[in-house]
């Protein structure tokens, strides 16, 4: 990069989960100047209780993952590593959570699905932003690696996301954005779906304009701020 160039990281869906985890885990060693996560989620442990997604939307994704990814690309590896019963369970998986259980947890030796989701999440080691905390518990709990974020980091998530529950971005956004050095920003919309945010009466004409414009404006704003401060 040139002297006046900045490196921005942008992730959508699973890419957003990976990016968020990297930004949190790397802390001051992060190689990015800014990052934005779209429809990813920061604590995937909340997915374990997202029953509506498991019933309605995940079966379609599970079928696609199983046929195009597992069977289409890595079937010999799974047949070699898994027992016949484990492989059979994988082929019968009816949700993404079940795919994760049999294709990721079993294959890679995680203790269970909660262990895997904890490791893959930026807030996977945190208890500070969980639900059901009464007033006496506020301010207590483990903040975890999310407090290590050292670059401007924006999270864009729709509250009606049918695949990644809004709970995966924490139950106290105000507390979260004031965590650590205050680099975390959150844009939560009432609607928008999963990597969607359709605009107008004919959404196909605008395609993914809303979220891509949001990424562009965030990046430009950070760049302007850094230039002004330098």
Keywords:
8 helices, 230 residues, alpha/beta, 43% helix, four-stranded parallel sheet, 4 strands, globular
Can you offer a commentary on this structure?
The protein has 230 residues and is of the alpha/beta class. Helices cover 43% and strands 10% of the residues. Strands 1-2-3-4 form a 4-stranded parallel sheet, sandwiched between helices. Helix 7 links the parallel strand 3 and strand 4. Helix 3 runs parallel beside helix 5 and helix 4 runs antiparallel to helix 5. 33% of the residues are buried. About 2% of the residues have low confidence.
Percent of residues in helices: 40-55%
Low-confidence stretches: 134-138
Physical arrangement of strands within the biggest beta sheet: 1-2-3-4
Number of helices in the DSSP assignment: 8
Distance N terminus to C terminus? 17 Å
Largest sheet: number of strands, sense, barrel closure: 4 strands, parallel
Task: Summarize the SSE layout with pairings.
Blueprint: E1 8-12, H1 14-26, E2 34-38, H2 51-56, H3 58-81, H4 84-91, H5 96-108, H6 113-120, E3 153-158, H7 173-177, E4 184-189, H8 209-229
Parallel strand pairs: 1-2, 2-3, 3-4
Quick structural gist:
The chain is of the alpha/beta class. The chain is built from eight helices and four strands.
